[in-house]
Design goal:
This protein is of the alpha/beta class. The protein is 46% helix and 14% strand. Strand 7, helix 7 and strand 8 form a beta-alpha-beta unit.
Length: 404
C-alpha cells in the first residue's frame, strides 16, 4: 500500500511541476554539447498543446531566473507556459569560443559553427522531440548577449524575440542591429538592459544602439531599453529578466481593472469586438490559440451592463458558444439580453435551456432555472423600453486584480 501511495504521489507531483530534462546532442559542427530542456507543468497532461520556446545561452546561471519568473507569471496566468532550452557554455573557454567573431564583426571560426549549430542542429532536434510552435525567443548575458544579435543579420531570422543583457558587442553591431531592425519584415521584439555600474564600453555601445533604434521612423518592431540605476553587471540580470518577459508578452494578461476603466468602459460601442480583437491579436502575435478567459467574458459583460449596451450581449453569446460550447455561458448571455430588453417569455425559455447544459463557474443550472422562475408572470415590454438597472443576483462583476 505504501508503495502504491508513493507512486501516486510521484505521478501527481510530476504533473504539477515543470520537468527538467538533461539532454546531449552530437553535433557535426561542435562535437558533444549538453543542454537542459524545461517543459511546463501542463506538458504531460495536455498532449494536444504546443508551446513557444525560450533559448537561454549561459544556461548554467541564466536558467533559474528565467524559469522562476515564467513559473510565477504562468501561475497567475500573466505569462504563457513555454519550453526553455538552456545551453551549457560555462566550462573552459566555451562561451567565448561560441561567440567568436572576426575583425569585421561577423561570426567566425567556432562562433560561426555555434551560430549554425543553433539553427541547423539544435532547433531541428527540439522541434522533432518536443511540441513547439514557431514563436522563439533567445536570451544571453554580456558575451552571449552580443552573440545573439547575429541572428538579426539574417533576412528571415529564426528568433522572434531577443533579450540582450549587458551586451558585449562586436564591431559595428551598435549600427547594424538598428539597420536590420528597420528592414526585417517579420514582427520582432527586442529588449536590451544595462546597469549603471557596468563597464563603460558596454554602456556606451548599448546607449549608441539605443539611440540608433529610437531614431528609426515608423518602426514595425517592439523595443524596450532599460538602464538600471545602481545596478552592476550581475545584479541587472535580476531586474531585467521579469521586465524583458513582461515586455514581450504585454497584452497577454487578463483584463485588469486599469484596462477596464481606462479603455473598455470608455468605448461607445464594440465591447464584444474588443474581446475578440484581444485574442485574435494574441494568436497573430505569438502563434498560439488561447481560449478566452472566463474573467474576460465577465469584464465585457460588466461593461455592457454598466453602459446599457444590451444588444452586445448577443454577439458575446455567440463568442461564448464558439469557445465554450454545450455550457451555460452563451445561453446565459443570450437569456440576459432577452431579459434586459423586456422579452421575458423568450428569456424564460432561454434560461431553461440550461437544464441540458454543463454549468460553468457560478452560472449553474439552478441559477439559470431560478432566473427563469423569477421572470414568470411578467408581461413583455416594447423592445425600446430597456430596464436601467442590473438585478442584484446577476453574476456580473468588474475585473479585479486578484484571480481566484
Amino acid at each position: 500500500m505504501k508503495t502504491k501511495l508513493f507512486l501516486f504521489a510521484l505521478l501527481v507531483s510530476s504533473c504539477l511541476f515543470a520537468q527538467r530534462t538533461p539532454e546531449t546532442i552530437e553535433s557535426k559542427k561542435l562535437g558533444t554539447r549538453t543542454f537542459t530542456v524545461v517543459t511546463p507543468p501542463s506538458y504531460a497532461t495536455s498532449p494536444e498543446k504546443s508551446y513557444p520556446t525560450l533559448l537561454v545561452l549561459d544556461g548554467e546561471y541564466l536558467l533559474d531566473p528565467f524559469e522562476g519568473i515564467l513559473k510565477y507569471g504562468a501561475y497567475w496566468d500573466d505569462l504563457p507556459e513555454m519550453i526553455i532550452i538552456a545551453v551549457n557554455q560555462n566550462y573552459g573557454e566555451t562561451r567565448f569560443a561560441d561567440s567568436e567573431f572576426d575583425d569585421a564583426g561577423f561570426p567566425a571560426g567556432s562562433g560561426a559553427n555555434f551560430f549554425e549549430f543553433i539553427g541547423q542542429e539544435l532547433y531541428p532536434y527540439i522541434d522533432k522531440k518536443y511540441r513547439t510552435i514557431p514563436f522563439r525567443m533567445i536570451a544571453g548575458h554580456d558575451t552571449t548577449a552580443g552573440f545573439l544579435n547575429f541572428y538579426l543579420y539574417k533576412d528571415n531570422p529564426i528568433f522572434n524575440a531577443y533579450i540582450s543583457l549587458a551586451p558585449e558587442m562586436a564591431p559595428e553591431m551598435e549600427k547594424r542591429v538598428a539597420e536590420r531592425l528597420a528592414k526585417i519584415a517579420k514582427p520582432i521584439f527586442y529588449y536590451q538592459a544595462t546597469g549603471e555600474g557596468d563597464l563603460k564600453e558596454i554602456n556606451e555601445k548599448a546607449a549608441e544602439l539605443d539611440a540608433n533604434i529610437k531614431a528609426i521612423p515608423n518602426a514595425t518592431f517592439k523595443y524596450q531599453n532599460d538602464a538600471f540605476k545602481g545596478a552592476s553587471h550581475y545584479s541587472l540580470v535580476a531586474k531585467a529578466v521579469p521586465n524583458s518577459i513582461y515586455f514581450i508578452f504585454d497584452g497577454y494578461q487578463p483584463i485588469s481593472m486599469v484596462e477596464f476603466q481606462d479603455k473598455i468602459l470608455k468605448l461607445d460601442a464594440g465591447y464584444t469586438d474588443y474581446l475578440i480583437a484581444k485574442y485574435d491579436e494574441l494568436e497573430k502575435r505569438f502563434g498560439f490559440k488561447m481560449k478566452p478567459r472566463l474573467t474576460d467574458f465577465k469584464a465585457i459583460e460588466a461593461a455592457i451592463m454598466k453602459n446599457k449596451a444590451y444588444n452586445e450581449l448577443l454577439p458575446l453569446s455567440d463568442y461564448a458558444n464558439k469557445h465554450y460550447p454545450k455550457t451555460t455561458l452563451g445561453t446565459y448571455h443570450e437569456a440576459l439580453y432577452y431579459e434586459k430588453t423586456g422579452n421575458y417569455k423568450r428569456a424564460i425559455k432561454t434560461y431553461q435551456r440550461a437544464f441540458t447544459q454543463e454549468a460553468i463557474r457560478e452560472i449553474t443550472k439552478d441559477f439559470m432555472l431560478n432566473r427563469a422562475e423569477a421572470l414568470k408572470g411578467k408581461e413583455d415590454k416594447p423592445t425600446e423600453d430597456v430596464p436601467a438597472e442590473v438585478p442584484a443576483e446577476t453574476p456580473t462583476e468588474e475585473p479585479t486584480e486578484k484571480k481566484e
